[in-house]
């Protein structure tokens, strides 16, 4: 056995992860179902470190030092199960199987339990950062047992992104915790991108600005609180000119956003856990709406497809841009606050004991949602691990409060002019709902009691009550 670690599944992410390991001095066994892909990796990048080529899974397992660490980087679902089953036959108790794909955390829990029966460790690991991150330093979110982390942690910590000398890899918690946190990361990624898209849409419609002009606005924003990878690449994408037509690139791309499903999983899980992640949900549904081309065409014909254009006066231009920036920031804080609530709820439900502050640490670098303000999130949870909501942490409370007037003006403009901004407006509604003294939920309880005797609780007495709606005096009965 000559390899410290192995990677099976050498599509772009697996390939780059293997190269990252090799470049960091770990001799790495490489295997792929179609052998050609493995050979091309070794041929093209063999000089970057020590690759141990394996043509079969048996050879791959033989090449690994004990306890063996086998990273599986194949498609989520059936293909992952197939490789795990095959590996499990070849491995020995104490060995570790690591799934670095975007698996559903429930699958990870199931796999972990199944492999544990065979004495094997299974570590569902979230990896973010796309192709480049995998190669140069991703953000890594490992689940699984403490024991497996003792063997695996130092390797992952050394290949992960670093920010201020700190690694963007922390043991998230047992079994499915890593994949759960990666799922919520992706949900936040959906919300973040939807908010950016709405900001772009409003700037374009309101100012009548070109994509190149808007790119400059985003570049400016990237110098401040909003500084993040997604804002940076938004400027790049908006500034890009299509070589075929000479038009702005963004104008030649079909306006139907696709998804592989991690945002949908996030929303499904939040519904199960009863966590209102409205920003992520709106972002996911906005992608769905964009994809319904036939319905959109019919509605555009029935109602006219145009929204307001150029309604911002020249003299108000800078103020409008600043309003959109603040609305974006406040909505983004809401999306993260909701995402962290979701992680806390998952952690409680599944007994993971996830440290929210260190989750923010993992996301400071390497991942798609890396952003300057993750430092502030970490500080907020370090100062108070029991924060009821990130929104009320002093730093974020101040950021939201100082942006709320801008936020309202932007949503009012969007509604008046017919520019759809579901994530901006639902985030504002969430904020208003959360801070409200009395919600009309009281009326809903009354209705439920009226039509279905579902009972209600009173503000002035303990216990459940039911009103006898049919009797003339509407007598109350305590249950
Ligand atoms: C990451 C990304 C990565 C992938 C998304 C894309 O963190 O590196 O989240 O996992 O790019 O899954 O998701 P959609 O195809 O669903 O947009």
UniProtKB/TrEMBL annotation:
Active site residues of this protein: 182 (proton donor), 189 (proton donor)
Protein residues bound to NADP(+): 9-14, 32-34, 74-76, 102
Enzyme class: oxidoreductase
Keyword terms of this UniProt record: Gluconate utilization, NADP, Oxidoreductase, Pentose shunt
Binding site for substrate: 102, 128-130, 185-186, 190, 260, 287, 448, 454
Keyword Transmembrane belongs to the record: no
GO BP term (any one): D-gluconate metabolic process
SMART domains reported for this sequence: 6PGD
Pathway linked to the protein: Carbohydrate degradation; pentose phosphate pathway; D-ribulose 5-phosphate from D-glucose 6-phosphate (oxidative stage): step 3/3
One MF annotation (Gene Ontology) recorded for this entry: phosphogluconate dehydrogenase (decarboxylating) activity
EC number from the UniProt entry: 1.1.1.44
Function field: Catalyzes the oxidative decarboxylation of 6-phosphogluconate to ribulose 5-phosphate and CO(2), with concomitant reduction of NADP to NADPH.
Similarity-based family: Belongs to the 6-phosphogluconate dehydrogenase family.
Subunit structure and binding partners: Homodimer.
Protein name stated in the entry: 6-phosphogluconate dehydrogenase, decarboxylating
Species assigned in the record: Crossiella cryophila
């Amino acid at each position: 056995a000559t390899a410290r670690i192995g990677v099976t599944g050498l599509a772009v992410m697996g390939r780059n992860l293997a190269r990252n390991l090799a470049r960091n001095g770990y001799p790495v066994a490489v295997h792929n179902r179609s052998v050609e892909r493995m050979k091309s990796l070794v041929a093209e990048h063999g000089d970057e470190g020590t690759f141990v080529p394996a043509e079969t899974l048996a050879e791959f397992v033989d090449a690994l030092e004990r306890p063996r660490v086998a990273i599986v980087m194949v498609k989520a679902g059936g293909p992952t199960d197939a490789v795990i089953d095959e590996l499990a036959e070849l491995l020995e108790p104490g060995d570790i199987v690591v799934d670095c794909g975007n698996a559903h955390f429930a699958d990870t829990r199931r796999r972990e339990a199944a492999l544990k029966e065979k004495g094997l460790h299974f570590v569902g690991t979230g990896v973010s950062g796309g192709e480049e991150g995998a190669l140069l330093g991703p953000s890594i979110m490992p689940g699984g047992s403490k024991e497996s982390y003792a063997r695996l942690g130092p390797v992952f910590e050394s290949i992960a992104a670093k920010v201020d000398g700190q690694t963007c890899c922390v043991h998230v918690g047992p079994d499915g915790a890593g994949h759960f946190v990666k799922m919520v990361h992706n949900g936040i990624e959906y919300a973040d991108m939807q908010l950016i898209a709405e900001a772009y849409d409003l700037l374009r419609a309101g100012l009548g600005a070109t994509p190149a002009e808007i790119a400059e606005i985003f570049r400016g924003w990237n110098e401040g609180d909003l500084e993040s990878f997604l804002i940076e690449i938004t400027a790049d994408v908006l500034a890009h000119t299509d070589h075929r037509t000479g038009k702005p690139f963004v104008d030649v791309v079909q306006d139907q956003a696709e998804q592989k499903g991690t945002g949908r999983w996030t929303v499904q899980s939040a519904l199960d856990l009863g966590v209102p992640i409205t920003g992520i949900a709106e972002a996911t549904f906005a992608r769905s709406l964009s994809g319904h081309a036939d319905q959109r065409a019919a509605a555009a014909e029935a109602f006219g497809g145009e929204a307001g254009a150029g309604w911002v006066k020249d003299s108000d231009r800078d103020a409008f841009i600043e309003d959109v920036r603040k609305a974006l920031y406040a909505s983004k804080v809401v999306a993260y606050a909701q995402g962290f609530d979701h992680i806390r709820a998952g952690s409680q439900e599944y007994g993971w004991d996830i440290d929210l502050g260190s989750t923010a640490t993992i996301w400071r670098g390497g991942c798609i949602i890396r952003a300057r303000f993750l430092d502030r999130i970490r500080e907020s949870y370090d100062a108070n691990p029991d924060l009821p909501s990130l929104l009320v942490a002093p730093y974020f409370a101040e950021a939201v409060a100082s942006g709320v007037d801008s936020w309202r003006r932007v949503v009012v403009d969007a509604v008046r002019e017919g520019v759809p901004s579901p994530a901006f407006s639902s985030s504002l509604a969430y904020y208003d709902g959360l801070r409200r003294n009395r919600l009309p939920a009281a009326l809903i309880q009354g209705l439920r009691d009226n039509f279905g005797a579902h009972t209600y609780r009173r503000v002035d007495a303990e216990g459940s009550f039911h009103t006898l709606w049919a009797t003339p005096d509407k007598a109350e009965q305590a249950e």
